[in-house]
Amino acid sequence: MIESLLPILAGTLAAATPLIFAGLGELVVERSGVINLGVEGMMLIGAIAGFAGAAQTGYGAAIGLPLGALAGAAASMIFAFFALSLAANQAACGLALTIFGVGLSAFVGQHYVSYSLPGLQPLAIPLLSDIPLVGPVLFRQDWVVYLSLFSFAGVAWTLSKTRLGLLLKAVGESPEAAHAIGYPVLGIRYGAVAFGGAMAGIAGAYLSTVYTPLWVQNMSAGRGWIAVALVVFATWKPGRLMLGAYLFGAVTILQFHAQGLGISVPVQLLAALPYAATVVVLVLISRDRKLLQLNLPASLGKTFLP
Amino acid sequence: MNTSAPRLQLLHITKRYPSVVANADISLSVQPGEIHAILGENGAGKSTLMKIIYGAVKADEGEMLWDGRQVAITNPAQARRLGIGMVFQHFSLFETLNVVENIALVLDEPFDLAALARRVTEVSERYGLPLDPFRPVHSLSVGERQRVEIVRCLLQNPRLLILDEPTSVLTPQAVLKLFETLRQLAAEGVSILYISHKLHEIQALCDSATIMRGGRVTGQAIPKDETPASLARMMIGRELPQCVAPVYTGERRPVLEIRSLSRPTDDPFGTALHDISLTVHAGEIVGIAGISGNGQAELLAALSGEAPGARNAVCIDGAPVGHLNAGQRRRQGLVFVPEERLGRGAVPALPLTHNALLTGHPQGMKRWGLVRYARARAFAEECIRRFDVRCGGPEAVARSLSGGNLQKFIVGREIMLQPRVMIVAQPTWGVDVGAAAFLRQTLLDLSRTGVAILVISEELEELFEISDRIAVLAAGRLSPAEAKAATNAESVGLRMSGLFTPPTEASAPASASSSSTESSHASA
User: Fold this and answer.
1) Which CATH number fits the domain that encloses residue B318?
2) In angstroms, what separates the C-alpha of A78 from chain B's closest C-alpha?
3) Which of A22, A258, B71, B485 could form an S-S bond across to A227 if both were Cys, CB 3.0 to 4.6 Å?
4) What is d(CA A289, CA A294) in angstroms, rounded to the nearest whole number?
5) pLDDT by residue (tens digit) across A263-299?
6) Beta B21-30 vs B208-213: how paired, if at all?
7) Contacts of A294 in chain B (CB under 8 A)
8) Residues of A in contact with B105 (CB under 8 A)
């Protein structure tokens, strides 16, 4: 029985990884008071850029991920220019970026439709991976999964323990006050948006070069939107975001197994399950209005020009 | 007073904005250890001048000398390095961060919160400004927030401290405390620029004064040698207008009754209301003093009908209206003038005609569900004429009016609805002296026609000028309303700090003492 659970647990980690990257990125963006709804678009742009790089060079994820990050960050700069420098409506700019990303990735991806990549071998961590049961699940993953855990630790530590994290929170709460005491509000927000774009790009590249190493149009399949929702429901706290991502990952893998067992439920319903389950659970745990209000970056979505 | 170079000298500073010259040819100088007042009305250009000194705004012309050497300050960080500290009128604090985090953000030094917390405690004790470094700012009272701002400046060892209207949020006792701190700083050689429009404060504190009006310097004075009247003449260009309160001769019957109004709050930054009772009679003005954030917003929402509650908690002429919404209460003869003129009292982008419609529509401005614009326009025109609203006519958009004129329009609009009860929040906030006097007189005259008026204000002087009785709202509790003759600013100030016995518990002596200590704790 336990033996049959292990692949599910191992799969959960991998399935959650793109959400962790995209969600952590968006969390940093929103902490600075900016809401970028272009995550889905940036993921797709990162996915095709990473896939193309990996396919052309043959280096796989080692080149795909950095390229995806670059492409995601570059795409986010389009958003930043309109939403920050020109103070246009952030929701509209983000939606436009998503639409642009879907179209651009499909266009560039035409040439890669029949390609597939080798994928990544799991990286077993010596000693730890030999622990019975838990070892193979936690410590025999591909290196990107480990990278996602380091990213979480880095973001959580930066937000809670460093001056940069404090500054990000301050800008998100009151850009006016931050400007009055002499901080470059727009510069900080540009930095946050670029980080968010790079993380979304990595998430996309992980999907296309590691998770399902082949190019499919629209392959992010709404994970960018789930990442945006995760950030809000996680009340802008990295730890809760991780919980939400693993929940999504677990239900994703479970429904695959359910499909395999031939349970007589339409496949479409099963495929929708991770999205529905994640949203429902997160809504339930974030019902507390006080919690939301205390953590909500007060200037979220409001334009600011110095 | 001193032969060495002045700490700060401004020469011919000019700053133009597209529609207005904010500062024209301003020159002044401040010596080390001098407390120098910048006296002027709202809109005289004081705040712009201070922002130029602090590097937040760039002057178009003129030069600035610091210790005798010419400097060009281009941003606040540079100003801080020179030794200029500024305490803002609207605090530049972050509510979700704690005290020491807020302070760490302005200091250019290694990030070590524990060490900084020790220094905060040390400095705050030395200057009598007690602070807990780890309290989140949203849980602090306004006075405590100001302490944070001051301590934040002091940690940078400033040589010039700028305070922009620092007492507008303080109780009279806290003002005295602040003055002690400032004198101690001046004695240590710190120069202080003290911006205010309150004459008696400047006379009590400052060594010298520069008086501004309409963006220009209209006088230099030694405040102690002047009278309030002579300072006022320099500040507003004429005598300080006085209000007259006629005697009300009509029947004194209760009109607005608030009965044991309690209201929890689900806003983490809000204040719960505890057992508030108050009666306002026909022909009187009752003032509610207190510092914003002590339940003012919650009480106003409960009275206006924006937050309906228990049926019997609010009554008009004996009829319960506590459960009604704002529109229904207006039909019962209640009108409400909110604190925020733009966005709540009026729609900024709409012309006055449309703004008249907002609350005046029952006055025959609609027929079969359609708007009769001619009626609305006539209403707006009459309001402009009767209440001396200086504007470009009924088609001028609300945003284009000065604060005083827009307030005259809003108050006038509500008066023309012939109310039985009027509730006004901060009637003269940010309004020039002339318009403020007009508004106060208008409220006095209205009350003497038999209307019950409730005024909530932070300006004690204003309340003493127009109110018949004064109550204090502190930490969500309301003190009993006392006749103006039976109280004074000092006792009201004490009650603003929460040192009173809530009225309903006064009859039960056993619990009275415990609850009064509790409320003083809440505000301490």
Assistant:
1) 3.40.50.300
2) 28
3) A22
4) 9
5) 777 878 888 888 888 778 777 877 777 777 778 888 8
6) unpaired
7) 96, 268
8) 163, 166-167, 170, 178, 181, 183
Helical H segments across B448-483, by residue range: 460-466
For chain A, positions 133-162, list CB contacts with chain B under 8 A: 162
Q: Which of A199-203, B110-114, B330-334 has the lowest mean pLDDT?
A: B110-114
Residue A42, domain extent: 2-295
Q: B149 or B522: whose pLDDT is higher?
A: B149
Q: Is the pLDDT of residue A97 over 70?
A: yes
A177–B92: do the CB atoms touch at under 8 Å?
yes
Q: Which residues of A touch B94 (CB under 8 A)?
A: 169-170, 173-174, 177-178
Largest CA distance in chain A: 63
- Whether pLDDT at B505 is above 60: no
Distance CA B272, CA B299 (A): 9
Q: Would an 8 Å CB–CB cutoff place B270 in contact with chain A?
A: no
pLDDT at A2: 60
Contact of B210 with B38, CB cutoff 8 Å: yes
Distance from the Cα of A180 to chain B's closest Cα (Å) equals 7
CB atoms within 10 A of CB A76: 32
Give how many domains chain A has, as a whole number. 1
Residue A301 lies in a domain: no
- Comparison of pLDDT for A80 and B399, the residue scoring more: A80
Q: Is A169's Cβ below 8 Å from some Cβ in B? A: yes
B339 is a domain residue? no
Same domain, B103 and B41: yes
Mean pLDDT of A134-139: 72
> Does residue A302 belong to any structural domain of this protein?
no
Q: Which residues of A touch B93 (CB under 8 A)?
A: 177
Does residue A181 sit at the B interface (CB-CB below 8 Å)? yes
- Domain of residue B496: give its range: 242-333+419-524
Q: Are B166 and B160 in contact (CB under 8 A)?
A: no
Query: pLDDT at residue A187 above 80?
Result: yes
Number of domains in chain B: 3
In this structure, what DSSP letter does residue B96 have?
T
**Secondary structure of residue B331 in the 3-state scheme:** helix
Radius of gyration of chain B (CA): 24
Tell me, yes or no, whether B301 and B360 share the same domain: no
Interface test with A, best of B51, B58, B92, B108 (most A CBs within 10 A): B92
Over residues B264-293, the mean pLDDT reads 88
Interface subset of B 25-44, CB within 8 angstroms of A = none
Is B88's CB within 8 Å of A174's CB?
no
In a domain, B3, yes or no: no
**Residues B288, B205 share a domain:** no
d(CA A22, CA A293): 23
DSSP class per residue in B200-213: HHHHHH-SEEEEEE
Query: Tell me: the pLDDT tens digits for A5-48?
Result: 777 888 888 899 999 999 999 999 999 999 999 999 999 999 99
Highest mean pLDDT among A106-110, B390-394, B419-423: B419-423
Q: What's the complex ipTM?
A: 0.78
Of B169-183, B416-430, B508-522, which range is least confident?
B508-522
Pairing type for strands B469-474 and B477-478 reads antiparallel
Sign of CA dihedral B68, B70, B76, B82: negative
Q: CB B266 to CB A162 under 8 A? A: no
User: Beta partners for A140?
Assistant: A124
Residue pLDDT, tens place only, A204-227 = 999 999 888 888 889 998 899 999
Which of B236, B270, B293 is where one domain is finished? B236
Test mutation, A181, A287, A288, chain B, max B CBs within 10 A = A181
The answer to whether A293 contacts B268, with C-beta atoms less than 8 Å apart, is: yes
